[in-house]
Amino acid sequence: MEEQAAYLTQAIDSILAGAGSLLPELLLAIFFLLLVTLDLFKSKTIKRLLPWVALTGLFSVLVLLVLDRNLAEVQFLNLLRSDGIARYAGILFSLTGIFTILLSLQNPKIEKRKQGEGRGEFYALILMLVLGLNLMAKSVNLLMVFLAIEVVSIASYILTLTLKEEKRAVEAGLKYVLYGTLSAGVMLYGMSFFYGLTGSLDYTLVSFWRSLLDASPLMVTVAAILVFAGFLFKISAAPFHFWTPDVYQGAPMPIVALFSTGPKMAGIIVILRFVAAFADPNVASAFSDVQLFLGIAALATLAVGNFTALWQRTPRRLMAFSSVSHAGFLLMALLAFGSDYTVSVLFYMTVLVFMNFGMFLFLQMAEENWQVRTLEDFQGMGARIPFAGVLALLYLLSLTGLPPLAGFMGKLLVFSNVWEAYTATGQPMLLMLLVAGILLTGVALFYYIKIPYYLFLKRNHTDENLVISLSNKLLLVLFALPLLVFFFKPDLLLHWIEKLLA
Amino acid sequence: MNYTLSSLIFLPLLAALVVLLLPTRMQQGIKAVTLGGTVLQLAVAVWLYLSFDGASVANGQTGYQFVEKLNWIGFSLGNLGRFQIEYFVGVDGVSIGMVLLTGIVGMIGVISSWNIAKNVKGYFLLYLLLMTSVMGCFLALDFFLFYLFFEFMLLPMYFLIGIWGGPKREYAALKFFIYTLIGSLFILVVMIGLYTSVIDPEATAQQMGLVGENVPASLDLIRQVQQMLQQGTIAQADLVRTFSIPAMMEPANFIPGSLLHIFSGVSLFDLPIRFVAFLLVLAGFLIKVPSVPVHTWLPDAHVEAPTPISVLLAAILLKVGGYGLIRIVYPVFPDAGAYFSTFVGGLGVLSIIYGALCALAMNDLKKLIAYSSVSHMGFVLLGLASLTNEGVNGAIYMMFSHGLISAMLFLVVGVIYDRAHDRMILNFRGLAKRMPAYTAFVVIAFFASLGLPGFSGFIAELLVLLGSFSAPEATGMLPRWMAVVAVIGLLLSAAYYLWALQRMFFGKYWIFPELREKAIISDLTSREYLMLVPLAVLAFAFGIFPHLLLDKTGMSVTGFTELVLRNGQEQLNILQAILHR
After folding, report:
1. Quick check: A340 and B78 CB within 8 A?
2. From the CB of residue B2, how many other CB atoms can be counted at a distance below 10 Å?
3. Please, which residues bridge with residue B272 across strands?
C-alpha cells in the first residue's frame, strides 16, 4: 500500500512536471470543446463566428510556440517529448491549420453548405486534427504514436466526407476508411511484435535497440516492415499510396491541402524520431535490412509519384502524385544517416506548406470560380488571369525545384545531405537515391509544366479578364512571398530552426 | 567597391520593373523602356570593355577585375562546418568578350522585336529577364550564382518560344526546356559534390580565428590553411565550404576524404569519380553548346522561335555552354580535361562535319542556319580541347564572332520571312533582282560565316585550326587528323552557303505561286538597316583588327592553359598511380 502510494505521488509529480509542455495541446483541446459547445447554439451570429474562434485558437498556439523562450527539452511520462523538433513541427502544424481555415473561408461550397448545419464540426475537426499532429510529432513511444495517428486518422475520415452529398466524396471517404483502418491494424500488429521482442514500447531507449539486436533478425525485419507500413501510409509513400488520388479527388480542396502537408509532415517526423537511432553507425549496420527496405520504399515512392503523375488529366490527381513524390524526397532525406539532416527536413517541410497551399488555393479558385475540372480546361486562361497565373507558375516551379524559388533550396539541402552521407558511408543505395532524385526532377518538370503550358501557351478565343477577389489575391501573395524569401535568404529560417534544435 | 558589374546585371531587371508598372496599353512606352534599358546595358558593357585591362596577369584563380564579393547565404551545418554562398562577380579575358556581345545583341534584339504585336508587355518583360540572367551567367564567379542564372534563363526562353513562336511552338519550347533542364540537373549533381568538397581558405582562416573578421588573409596564411587542411588538422566545424569557382580550381582546397578529392580513390563504372563528375558537367554544358549528338533541340527551337529570340538564342545563349566549359569544367577538372581531350575534340569535329552535312540537306533557310550554328560551335570544342593558347583564344573568338554573325544570319532570315511568311529555299529564286540591298547583306553574312578573310569568322577558324594543328607537339592533346578533318568542315560550309545563295538569290526572279498573293517583296527598311549595318561593321572590324579582342583575352587564356596543363598533368599522374595500384 505504502509502495503504491509512493509510486502514485511520483507519477503525479512527473505528470505535473511535464504538463506545462503540453500547453499547446491543452489549448487546442479547449478550443475544440469550445467550438463543439458553441455549435449547439442556433444563433446565426455565433455560427458565423465559429471559423474565427478556430482561427483564434490556432493562432494563439502559434504565438505561444513562436514566442516561448524556454528551449529546454521536457519529457512527459516517457510518452511525449517536447523538444525543438516538436516545437518547430507544432509551428508548422498551426500554420497548416490556419491556412486550411483561410482556404475554407474562400470556398463557396463549404461556406454555403455550412450555413445551417455542422459548421462547427468542420472547424472543430480541423483543430482536432492539428492536435493529433502535434501529438504525433511529440510521441516517443510506439503506443502513443499509434494513438496520435488514430486521432489524426479519425478526424481525416470525417473531413474527407465534408461534402457527403457528392458521390466521389463518399467513394473517397469509404476508400480512405478501409485503407486507413487496415494499415492501422497492420501497424499495431507490428508494434505488438516489437513489444514482445523488447518488452518496451519506448524506442528512444538504448535497451530497446539492444534487445532487438539479440532477437531473430527475421522477426525484427517483419515487425519493422509492418510498423513502417503504417507510417508510410500516413505520408502516402509507395506502395501504400493508393488512397491518395481518390481522397484528393473527393475531399474539399482545403482539406486536400491539409492532407498534403499536415499528416505527411507529422508522419515524417515520426519516422525521423524512429530512425534517429540509426545515426549511430553501429546500430545502422546491424539494421541494414530496415534501411534497405526504407531505401527501396523511397525509390519506389519517387518513381511511382513522378511517373504516374505524367499520365494524369486532372489537376487534383496530378497534385496527388506530386504529393507522393514529395514524400519520396522527404524519405530520401531521412536515409542520409550521419549527416545533419533534421534541419534540411524541417526546411523542406516549411517550403512544402507554402507551395502546396498556394497551389491548392489556385486550384480551388479554378475549380469553384472558373469550373476547371481537367488540365485542358486551363486552356488559354493565362491571359485572362495574369496575376493568379503567374503566381501559379511560381508555385509549380517551386514544386519542381527550380531556382529562384525555395523549393530548389529544399532539394539542394536534401541532396547535399545524401551526398555527405554517401561520402561518409559509400553506400550504393544513397548514390542511387541521389541520382534518381535528381533525374526525376527533370520528369517532374514535365508534368508540372502542363498547367502553365495550358495556361499560357495554348490559346482560347475569349479574352475578357476574370475577376479575382481581393482576399484570394492577398492569400496567393501570402503563400508566394516566403518561396522567394526562403530562396534568397534561406539562412534566416535555417538559423532559427538551428536555434530551436540546439 | 565598384558596382559596374552589378549595374550590368540588374539594369534590365530595373527596366523590367518599370515595364511591369506601365499599363498594358502603353505599348510604345514599354518598347522605349526596354530599348533604353538595353542601350544603357550596352553602354556600360562598352565602358567595361574599354577600361578592362587586358595586360594584367591572370592565372585562373586571381586576376579578375571589377570584382564584387558579398556574403549572401551562410549557414552552419552543425558538426560539418559551414557553407557559404557569395554574391561574387568579376570579369576576366574569357568573359569580357561575352559581356560585350550580350550588350550588342541584346540591343539589336529589341530593335528586331519592334513589330511584336501580341501581348507586348509580357514579351518585353520576359526579354529583360532573359537579359539579366544571361549577363549574370557570364559574370558570376560563384557556382551557385552561376547556376541560378543558368537555370533561370530557361524559363523566359520557354515562354518566349512557346507563346510568340511558330506553328509547332509548344513542342519546340517543351523540348528546349526538358533538354536543357536535364543538362542543368547534371550540373547540379556536380555542383553539390563540389561544394561539399571544397573550402574557402580565407573564410576558414577567419572561422578558425587566425585572422579577424573582414580582414583579408595574406597569401602565406592561405597557404598555411591549405596545408593544414591537407594534413587534416583543421576541426570539421571550422571548415567553410564554398561555391566559389576560383576556390574550386585549386586542388589544395579540396577536403581530404571528400569524394572529389584527387586522392579519394573512389571509382564508379571503372572510372575515377572525378572523371565521372567531369563527364556529367561536360554533358550538361554540351547540351547547351550544343554538340552532336545532343543538339536535336536546337533546330526545333530555332525554327519555331520568333526572329529576335532566334537571334538571342544563337548569338548569346549557346555561348553560355562554351563559356561554362572554359570557366568551370576545364579549370575545376583539369585532369579529366586532359584525359578526355581527344573525346571532346572528337565531338567537336563530329559537330563540325555532321552539322555542315545537315545544313547542306536543309530546304528551310532557318534550319540551314541552325545547323550551321551546330557546325560552328564544333570549332569552339575543338579549339578548347587542344588546350593551346591559339586554340583557346580561337574558341573564345569563335564564340564572339559567331555571336555577331549568327545574329546577322537570323535577322536576314527574319527579313524574308516577314515579307513572304515563308523561308523555304526552293520557293524563291533571283531575289537579288528585287532586293539588292538585302542580297548584299545576305552575301556579307554568308561570307563572314563561311570564314572569308577580312571577317571575324576567319580569324576564329584560323586560330582554332592553328591550335589544333600544333596541339600534338605543343600540349600532347588531339591527334592530328582532327585538324585535317575540321578543314573539310570549312569546305562544306562554303558549299551550303554558296549553294543556298545561288538557289535563292541569283538567276531569274521567281517565287512560288502560292506565296505571290501575300508576299510583298520589298527591300530593306530603315529599321532593318539599323540592325544589320552595325553587325556587319563589327564582323568586319573584328576581322581586320583581331587584337581588339585578343589583347583582352590573351593573358587570361595563357593563365587558363597553364593552369589546366600543369594541374591536369600532375593530377592525372596521381590518378593513374592510384588506379594502377
Report:
1. yes
2. 10
3. B267
What does the DSSP 8-state code read for residue A202?
A: B
User: Closest partner residue to B77 among A340, A412, A419, by Cβ?
Assistant: A340
Please give the distance of CA A294 from its chain centroid, rounded to a whole number.
18
Can you tell me the distance from the alpha carbon of A453 to that of B511, in angstroms, rounded to the nearest whole number? Answer: 37
Name the residue among A202, A196, A275 with its Cα closest to residue A232.
A275
Q: What is the pLDDT along chain A (502 residues), one digit of tens a residue?
A: 677 777 888 878 877 777 778 888 899 999 999 998 888 887 888 888 888 999 999 999 999 888 877 767 777 778 888 888 899 999 999 999 999 999 998 888 877 765 556 677 889 999 999 999 999 999 988 999 999 999 999 999 988 888 777 788 888 888 889 989 999 999 999 999 989 888 888 888 888 888 888 888 888 888 888 999 989 998 988 888 888 998 998 888 999 999 999 999 999 999 998 888 787 777 777 777 777 888 899 999 999 999 999 899 999 999 999 999 999 999 999 888 877 788 899 999 999 999 999 999 999 998 888 888 888 888 888 888 888 889 999 999 999 988 889 999 999 989 988 888 888 887 888 888 988 998 898 889 889 988 988 888 887 767 677 788 888 899 999 999 999 999 998 888 888 888 888 7
- Residue ranges with strand state E in B500-568: 510-511
Half-sphere exposure of B127 (CA within 13 A, CB side): 34
Q: Does A442 touch chain B (CB under 8 A)?
A: yes
All 3 cell numbers of residue B522? 520589298
For chain A, the domains span 20-271, 287-502
Q: Do B192 and A339 touch (CB under 8 A)?
A: no
For chain A, the 3-state helix, strand and coil shares in percent, each to the nearest 5, are 80, 0, 20
CA A2 – CA A119 distance, rounded (Å):
52
* Ranges assigned E (strand) in B230-298: 240-242, 267-268, 271-272
Q: What sections of A167-314 are H helices per DSSP?
A: 167-198, 206-214, 217-234, 243-250, 253-275, 281-286, 288-310
Q: Does B185 sit within 8 Å of A439, measured CB to CB?
A: yes
Chain B interface, Cβ < 8 Å to A: 73-80, 119, 122, 147-148, 151-152, 154-155, 158-159, 162-163, 169-170, 173-174, 177-178, 181-182, 185, 188-189, 192-193, 195-196, 257-259, 266, 268
In whole angstroms, give the CA distance from residue B531 to residue B307: 12
CA angle A299, A300, A305 (to 5 degrees): 105
Coil, helix or strand at residue A475: helix
Nearest to B239 by CA among B202, B280, B266: B202
Residue in A274, A259, A382, A390 with CA at minimum distance from that of residue A324: A259
Determine the Cα–Cα distance for residues B127 and B122; give it in Å rounded to an integer: 9
A60-96 as b/e, with b when 16 or more CB fall inside 10 Å?
ebbebbeeeeeeeebbbebbbbbbbbbbbbbbbbbbb
Pairing of strands B65-76, B240-242: unpaired
**H/E stretch holding B71:** strand B65-76
Cell numbers at A292, concatenated:
534497405
Of the residues B192, B261, B267, the best mutation for testing chain A's interface (the one with the most A CB atoms within 10 Å of its CB) is B192
ipTM reported for the complex surpasses 0.85: yes
User: What is the pairing mode between strands B65-76 and B271-272?
Assistant: unpaired
Chain B contact present for A489, CB below 8 A: yes
Beta strands at B65-76 and B82-91: parallel, antiparallel or unpaired: antiparallel
User: What is the H or E stretch that residue A82 is in?
Assistant: strand A80-82
Angle at A211 between CA A208 and CA A212, to 5 degrees: 85
Residue of A449, A494, A496, A500 best to disrupt the B interface, most CBs of B under 10 A: A449
